[in-house]
Amino acid sequence: MIVHLVDGTYELFRHFYGWRRFTKGVDHPYGAVVGVLQTVLQIIENEKGATYLGVATDHVIESFRNRLWADYKTGAGIEPALLAQFHPLEETLTAMGVVVWPMIELEADDALASAAHLASKDKKVQKVAIWTPDKDLAQCVRGTRVVQIDGRRKIIRDAVAIREKFGVDPPLIPDLLALVGDAADGYPGIPGIGAKTAATLLNRYGRIEKFPSNVLGEQRKLALLFKKLATLRTDAPLFKKVETLRWRGPTPAFAKWAKRMEAPRLLERCDRVKLRHAVVR
After folding, report:
1. Per residue in 84-95, is it b (16+ CB within 10 Å) or e — as a string?
2. Which residues of 19-45 are buried (b: 16+ CB within 10 A; e: fewer)?
3. Which of 27, 174, 216, 273 could lock 81 by a disulfide, CB 3.0 to 4.6 Å apart?
4. How far is 77 from 83, CA to CA, in rounded Å?
């Protein structure tokens, strides 16, 4: 059993700007949504048997982290044409029969981390695949059992690959990000500490809490705050049994959505995949 966890918000952004390049700036009201649905369907199609899959989304951009750091990322600056597709994405995925986790207090990344944690506790699960290139999710990788997949670049990273890329093992990724910062999330890191220096310090001393007091000096408290921002939550109660993630085909509501999105082939594709899965079972 392989459990697939998809970063719906990342995919929506990716397909929105990909569509714009293709149409030379002309926005379709559901263009990005259709793109995400196609990506999810491709994952389902590639499974020879039953598919276990969940998609995490940011129902709103702000989260508890905005109360911890004033400059943490917000929804400001997101184009209206993109923002308007956030909630339709959640509705269409649900209509397509896919489990969706729309996050409000937590972020989509927290949902992915929590889902990976829950799924990996099930002995029947052979592998958990987290579909996102977001470096935050690298902290969730465990050996070869919980991996990170960059679908666009077709790269699969296990724990060894994460260390090769970042210079530290997955559990130390929050510490690394705290030191070097994350511009996408809106926190700057500690002045004067780059990626190589950060990796050297972490490999020498371990997590930031174990650093000698003279290493960070007055910046220690700030580094620990940034680490809190970078550490993904794994306690979201998303599901009790992995079986609830099993895809069983589109619901009757999906036909209306396919018509509204002017994407009849999506419905045909869903039905075809559902039939094939039924035959395999």
Report:
1. ebbebbbebbbb
2. bbeeeeeebbebbbbbbbbebbbebbe
3. 27
4. 10
Report the distance separating Cα 124 and Cα 112, nearest Å.
Answer: 19
Angle between helices 264-280 and 31-46 (to 10 degrees): 20
- Write the DSSP assignment of 154-184 as a string of letters: TEEE-HHHHHHHHSS-GGGHHHHHHHH-BTT
Nearest to 148 by CA among 232, 59, 256, 26: 232
- Cα distance between residue 29 and residue 125, in whole Å: 38
The lowest-confidence range among 24-33, 118-127, 137-146 is: 24-33
Of residues 159, 130, 131, the one with CA closest to residue 144: 159
Q: Which residue has the tokens 């999710």?
A: 137
Confidence class of residue 230 from pLDDT cuts 50, 70 and 90? very high
In this predicted structure, the answer to whether residue 266 has a pLDDT above a threshold of 70 is yes
Taking the model in full, what pTM does it have?
0.95
CB 104 within 8 A of CB 61: no
Are the C-beta atoms of 229 and 68 separated by less than 8 Å? yes
Closest CA to 154 of 46, 30, 277, 17: 46
Q: Which residue has the tokens 């029969």?
A: 97
Q: What is the CA radius of gyration of the chain?
A: 20
